[in-house]
Structure formats: C-alpha cells, structure tokens
Design a protein that fits this description.
binds 5'-deoxyadenosine; 36% helix; Rossmann fold; binds iron/sulfur cluster; OB fold (Dihydrolipoamide Acetyltransferase, E2P); five-stranded mixed β-barrel
Length: 454
C-alpha cells in the first residue's frame, strides 16, 4: 500500500477536487497519509487568487525538496505533484524554480493523474497535463464518493465567463461549464447513501448553472435544487459562490419555499462604489445589488447574507471606499470576507494606472474589517437563547463534545453530543462566543418530584 498526502489551499472547489483526487487514486493503491512525512506521493492543490496564496506554494515546495533529498539518501523515493490554479497559471515557472516537482496537473486535468504517475514509473520524465477538457474530467471521475463527514461539497459548475478585471479565475479554471443534472443527482445520492445529510453545491459562478436536464433542456440552479431536495437522506442544501447578475427570480423563489435550502447566501459585491464596480467589469451597480438583497430578503426574511470585498482596487478614492462602508451599513452582513487588492499578472487591472499604495490598502482593510466584525458579532448575539437545528459534524475539543453547524453556517459546540454526529437536533443557544456558539440540548419539562407524586 502506498500513501498519499494532499495539502489543499484556497477555495472550497479545491477542497472538493482534493477529495476527488483521493477517490481517484485509491484504486491504484494510495491510502491517505496524515502528513507529508508519511507519504510516497505529496500533492499541493494550489490557489492563484492572490499573490500571498501563490507564494505559499513555493515555500512549501522548498520544504518538500528537503524531504525528498533526505528520502533519496535513505534510498527511498518521494513523488511531488502540484495541482490546482498555480500549476495551471505558472506551470513553466514552477518547473524552472523547483526541480523537485515531478507532476503538474491543472484543475481540469487531474483525472489524468493515474496515467501521469504510471508514466513517471516507466521513467518517462516529468509528467505535465494542463489541458482544459472540463467535461472529460467529470466523466472520468469515479461515480461514487467517499464522504469525509455528514456535510459534503459537490461541484456542479466550473469556470467563469465574467472576466472581472482583477480576477485570474477565467484564465485558470476556463470557461463556464455545467455538469448534467443526472450526474449531479447520482453523486448526491451516493453521498446520501454514505451518511451525508448536507450538500453544498459548488461553482465559481454557481448560480450561472445551466446544465442539461433529464428532459434535454437547460436546467437552472433553482430547478436543480428542487430536484435534489427530493432525495430523502439529504436534509440541507446550500450553494456557493453566486454572482449578483445571475440571481434569477426562480432562484430567489426557492429561498422562500424550499425548506431544505438553508437561509444563508454568499453573494459577493466587491465594492459599494459604482465607478469602481464599472472598472472592475462587475456588470452590476450598487443599486442593482441592493435591490437583489431586498428581493431575497422578502422571499426569505431569515436570510443570513455574506459577501466578498476588495479594498484598494486601482483608482479607488476615499469617497469610493466610503461608499463601500455605506453599503455594508445599509445591508447588514452576517459575515463577510475582505481582501487587499492584489495585482495578478495577466489580468487587466494589474496594468491600470492609479494603483493604490499599500499603506492606504491596509488602513482601508482595517476599517472595513472592524465594521464587518461588529456586524457579524451583532448577528451572532441575536442567537442568544434561540433554539436552532444543528447538524452535528465532528467531535469537539472537549470529551463528549460535538461541533455542528446552525442553518446560518455558525459553528455550534454542544456537550454530551458525541453520539449524535451525523444527526440534526434542536439546540438552545446558551452562550455566544466570538467565533462560535455554545448550545445545550432542550430538556423535556419534568415536574418537580413533590408535584409529580400528585
Ligand atoms: N485581489 C484581491 N482579492 C481578489 N479576489 C479575487 N481576485 C482578487 C485580487 N486580485 C477576491 C474576490 C473574490 C474572492 C474569492 O477573492 O473578493 O470574490
Ligand atoms: Fe473572478 Fe469575477 Fe468570475 Fe468571480 S465572477 S470568478 S470574481 S471573474
């Protein structure tokens, strides 16, 4: 038996890809290892979205090179593979900068790994596969899924045709591609058969989903969600990441009338300033975003909203940034992610004039994050003493404890819940902590002994 260790960086789509790589290599004798030191094959599944994420890959490869030389001295071998978006975007540079790398695969070509490993074993030199056949990849992956726990990711759509001027995704993941409904449904059923209760549908532009339906027509995400909600074992559905431009009326309606769809939506806006949104090529205005938020909230008043923001995009003025803060105050987010603009080679924004100085970016990031944290704390505070259904996912840090998720994606710790992993139970929120909630089981009302006697 050989051992495989995968280190995953970046988004949930990479988490999904890493699980599929493990599924793919299992029949070839690769069992999972807990650390690189124990593995015969190490794969870094990389992220190219910001410079920092990319730099991490090179520093990790430096460490792996040392491990490989130590192995070689002991007469043993170690294969090093780089997968994901850095491999796709910087393949040649990786090979030039780090000679220890044996295999390169892109996000659309990792299904070729078994063949590439076999080629290496035959001594055919470095193995590189960076083509873009998205449909071929999904067709070659095993139908069944090994579930890591009761909540799982399922990629239904990949790629992006939107070309926001700051973003590398259209270049690394390619054009928008949607998987057919029957294939997604088969995978979801296989997950349910393996004890999965919650499925998060993934795509770079998941709500742009237009996959072939069983009737041969192009189905929308709303139609797909309604179909998957009929699988008895699946109790909860989520989807991410969405684009405001693709928030169709039928999808908004599902939020109002499909109880299995959780009341949580990650809807990146990036900026609250119309002029910045325009140069970003986002294809929506501030007002259009606010109108969409209103419509979803009328359909589902409980909805928890999340978003992504970029500060310090080229040309962003103080008043543009003020407009972002104002949008945040107006919407009220349950949570949000914010990033300093990072110039990515090959994207239009990287060569724009009026790049914002680092210190200004940092200052704006602090101000925005403070506002967002205060909003998310306020959102959590409102949970005090509420009763929430929790899907228990894994053991907690303390003995007997289990951690699950609320419908709003908040982690909830409950004592004495270890035997409930994989189940959904109502829990009373007894304590609101900075990044999680503490809950207690509802005890049935019991009469005091003296009254019970009567
Ligand atoms: N710089 C900073 N943040 C970026 N994102 C995407 N590209 C960049 C970039 N060049 C952020 C966006 C996106 C999230 C996944 O990452 O906010 O929604
Ligand atoms: Fe990148 Fe914009 Fe596409 Fe999102 S919609 S992946 S930010 S180009």
């Amino acid at each position: 038996m050989k051992k495989l260790y995968i280190e995953t960086y970046g988004c949930q789509m990479n988490v999904y890809d890493s699980e599929r790589i493990a599924d793919l290599l299992a029949p070839f004798g690769y069992a999972p290892a807990a650390r690189a030191e124990d593995a015969d094959l190490v794969i870094l599944n990389t992220c190219h979205i910001r410079e920092k994420a990319t730099e991490k890959v090179y520093s990790e490869l430096g460490k792996l090179k040392l491990l490989k030389s130590r192995r070689a001295e002991a007469g043993e071998s170690l294969l090093i593979g780089v997968a994901g978006c850095v491999a796709q975007a910087e393949g040649a540079e990786i090979l030039a900068r780090q000679s220890a790398v044996d295999i390169l695969v892109g996000p659309q070509s990792y299904h070729r790994l078994p063949e590439l490993i076999a080629r290496l074993a035959r001594g055919e030199g470095k193995s590189v596969q960076l083509d873009f056949p998205a449909d071929e990849k999904f067709d070659s992956l095993p139908e069944t899924r090994t579930a890591a726990g009761p909540a799982a990711f399922l990629t239904i759509q990949e790629g992006c045709d939107k070309f926001c001027t700051f973003c590398v995704v259209p270049y690394t993941r390619g054009a928008e591609f949607s998987r057919p409904v029957v294939r997604i449904e088969a995978e979801a059923r296989s997950l349910a058969d393996n004890g999965v209760r919650e499925v998060t549908l993934l795509g770079q532009n998941v709500n742009a989903y237009r996959g072939e339906g069983p009737d041969g027509e192009a189905w929308t995400l709303a139609m797909l969600i309604r179909r998957l909600a009929q699988i008895p074992g699946i109790a909860r559905l989520r989807y991410t990441t969405s684009h405001p431009r693709d928030m169709g009326a039928d999808l908004i309606a599902v939020h109002g009338d499909e109880p299995k769809l959780m009341p949580y939506l990650h809807l990146p806006v990036q900026s609250g300033s119309d002029s910045v949104l325009k140069v970003m090529n986002r294809g929506h205005t501030r007002d259009a975003y606010l109108r969409i938020v209103d419509r979803i909230r009328s359909a589902q008043p409980k909805l928890a909203l999340s978003s992504d923001f970029i500060v310090g995009f080229p040309g962003e003025s103080d008043s543009d940034f003020e407009a972002t803060l104002d949008l945040v105050r107006q919407v009220g987010f349950a949570q949000a992610f914010s990033f300093k603009y990072s110039a990515r080679p090959g994207t239009p924004a990287a060569s724009m004039a009026k790049q914002v100085p680092e210190n200004v970016k940092l200052e704006r990031l602090h101000v925005l994050q403070e506002l967002i944290v205060s909003q998310s704390r306020e959102f959590s505070r409102r949970m005090q003493d509420c009763v929430l259904p929790v899907l228990f996912e894994k053991p907690g840090r303390l003995p007997g404890q289990a951690v699950g998720r609320s419908p709003f994606l908040q982690p909830v710790h409950v004592d004495g819940a270890a035997s409930y992993i994989g189940e959904i139970h109502n829990v009373r929120i007894s304590k609101v902590l900075p990044n999680s909630l503490h809950g207690e089981f509802l005890r049935p009302a019991v009469l005091p002994a003296e009254l019970a006697a009567h």
